[in-house]
Specification:
The complex is a heterodimer of chains A (about 350) and B (about 220). With about 350 residues, chain A is of the alpha/beta class. Helices cover about 35% and strands about 30% of the residues of chain A. In chain A, helix 3 (about 110-120) packs parallel to helix 5 (about 150-165) and helix 5 packs parallel to helix 6. In chain A, about 40% of the residues are buried. Chain B has about 220 residues and is mainly alpha-helical. Chain B has one domain: MetI-like fold. Chain B is about 75% helix and about 0% strand. The longest helix of chain B has about 35 residues, at about 10-45. Classes of the chains: A alpha/beta (about 350), B mainly alpha (about 220). The interface between A and B is medium-sized, with 29 and 22 residues.
């Protein structure tokens, strides 16, 4: 687990942002966002395009300013800073991007050394530090290459090295894996987890991919139309999604329910979806139901996934038999698994 | 070709004219490029959404640039004669041509430089801002290096346009290859002079273009 540092806390205190277009039409990008991100956590923000998550993440390093409210980074109101003071604050965070945003005209080591060069560090010292960070991200051998010669995953590693070169307490990830294939995405996610574990860096991740949240974040906020609609631990959110949009996102990782045709056909009582966590998944539930309650159990679907070092299983069963027995079976299940619900079409 | 029958021009005349053309081209290109980069950078940085957004400067400069660029060079040449006399101390000769050539080419290069700088991906500028780069650092360490291949091509295009304009410099007695073509090839029906100057101009343009393309390719890493 990450060693806790006292630095790297991000607080959104009633943040709103309104953009005014050239035709004087005001659109709200953020509405009264309140979030507290503890130092050393990996915090995910998920939402569809246009939900305001990019605006949100850009406020942490002052690229965007709130129209009202405050964004506090270790107690400093970033939105109120200007000029040199803002630039000093920006140096406490690192940011990585979907399109990597590397310079094509300088070598990898100079891309990574750039933030230090901006700070006035000499070429030799900056390059030495850059190569150290490149080794950490597993790209030491590519220090002398140009970005154009690298694969997408390698480019993102360079981006990460550049973001880390100043030892920031906060790393901002703006859809950093959205342009990468699944295998490369998994590698980048592992690297980000390693960074968090090794340095206790707070990582704020903005994405539209629930898989990324599942594998990377410990806390999640779901955004829609500039507002946070749901927030909580990732495991809890997967087990008990409250809003429809969160359900939609959870469904992309844990497919819920059955084809409508099957539900219509089986309909009525006894069609249940069970969620099981950790040891619960090893119980012989189906045979228990059959032997103890004399009901028929038809197993329609079962799957399992890892969320935040927890095993999460899902089963959909159709239980038939005398009404009393079915009720007893349900009570039995409710004692033994984390969640039981009726499947509706 | 000492010129009693088939041509009026001498090798000395030709090389003198070539020298004048190259001098006008070289000096006004260097001066115009310096001014042009300043103009282009100012336009790119102060425009709406730029890192030094400034509406009055951006608009004012754009008006001046468009104003100069809307004048045909021959008109500009005579219209700014008093200014030329002030700067060059004379209104005749090569230096009197260099002033209007520079005034003509600087806004042109400025627009090309602006375009080159705007071609730098927004993401690169955003990354620069995210790492706390000052506006000057964003320009000097991010935009300029990323745009350099495109900038070389812009200067190449400008050079060819400049060579075109030097042909009119004869109007203020600056000589040059173009003047040779007009006063001998055209006005004195010297066909040899005409062919020679045309070939020289073609070779010059091809040479400039080739040089520019080669340098730009070396600078471009994509």
């Amino acid at each position: 687990m990450a060693e806790r540092s006292s630095e790297g806390r991000i607080v959104f205190d009633g943040v709103s942002k309104t953009f005014t277009t050239q035709k004087k039409v005001a659109t709200a990008a953020l509405r009264d966002v309140r979030l507290e991100i503890e130092p050393g956590t990996i915090f995910g923000v998920i939402g569809y395009s246009g939900a305001g998550k990019s605006t949100l993440i850009r406020m942490v390093n002052g690229i965007e300013r709130p129209t009202s409210g405050r964004v506090l980074v270790d107690g400093i109101d970033v939105g109120a800073l200007r000029g040199a003071k803002l630039r000093t604050a920006q140096k406490r965070t690192g940011m990585i991007f979907q399109q990597f945003n590397l310079l094509d005209t300088v070598r990898v080591r100079d891309n990574v050394a750039m933030p230090l060069r901006l700070d006035g560090v000499g070429v030799a010292a900056a390059r030495a530090r850059a190569e150290e960070v490149l080794d950490f991200v597993g790209l030491g051998a590519k220090a002398g290459s140009f970005a154009g010669e690298l694969s997408g995953g390698q480019k993102q590693r360079v981006g990460i090295a550049r973001a880390l070169v100043r030892n920031p307490r906060i790393l901002l990830s703006d859809e950093a894996t959205s342009a990468l294939d699944p295998t490369t995405t998994a590698q980048i996610i592992q690297l980000l987890r390693d960074i968090n574990a090794e340095y206790g860096t707070t990582i704020l991740v903005v994405t539209h991919e629930m898989d990324v949240i599942k594998d990377l974040a410990s806390e999640v906020a779901v955004m829609a139309d500039g507002a946070i609609v749901e927030q909580g631990s990732v495991l809890d959110t997967f087990l008990h999604p409250r809003s429809p949009i969160t359900r939609d996102f959870v469904t992309t990782v844990v497919p819920q329910g059955l084809p409508d045709r099957v539900v219509d056909h089986l309909g009525g009582d006894g069609l249940w979806r069970l969620l099981l966590v950790d040891d619960e998944v090893t119980q012989p539930l189906v045979s228990d139901l059959i032997t103890r309650f004399g009901v028929e159990v038809n197993l329609l679907h079962a799957d399992m996934t890892e969320i935040q070092d927890h095993t999460v299983g899902q089963m959909i069963v159709k239980v038939t038999g005398p009404a009393a027995q079915v009720l007893e079976a349900r009570a039995y299940l409710q004692e033994r698994v984390v969640h039981v619900e009726e499947v509706q079409a | 070709m000492s010129g009693d029958k088939w041509t009026l021009i001498t090798p000395e005349m030709f090389f003198k004219a070539l020298g004048e053309t190259l001098q006008m081209l070289g000096v006004s290109l260097v001066l115009g490029s310096i001014l042009g980069v300043l103009i282009g950078a100012t336009l790119a940085l102060t425009r709406a959404g730029g890192v030094l957004e400034n509406k009055p400067i951006s608009l004012g400069l754009a008006v001046v640039v468009n104003l100069i660029r809307s004048l045909p060079f021959i008109i500009l040449l005579v219209a700014i004669l008093p200014f030329t006399r002030l700067i060059a101390g004379t209104s005749i000769g090569v230096w009197a041509a260099i002033v209007p050539l520079t005034v003509m080419i600087a806004p042109y290069i400025g627009r090309l430089v602006e375009n080159s700088l705007l071609e730098v991906p927004r993401g690169v500028v955003e990354a620069a801002r995210a790492m706390g780069a000052s506006p000057w650092q964003i320009f000097w360490r991010f935009m300029l290096p990323e745009a350099r291949g495109s900038l070389i091509l812009a200067v190449t295009i400008a050079s060819v346009g400049l060579l075109d304009a030097t042909a009119m410099a004869g109007t203020v007695g600056a000589g040059g290859i173009g003047d040779l073509a007009i006063s001998y090839g055209y006005q004195r029906y010297d066909t040899f002079a005409m062919i020679l100057t045309v070939i020289t101009l073609i070779v010059l343009v091809q040479g400039i273009q080739l040089l520019g393309t080669v340098i730009a390719r070396r600078f471009r890493r994509r």
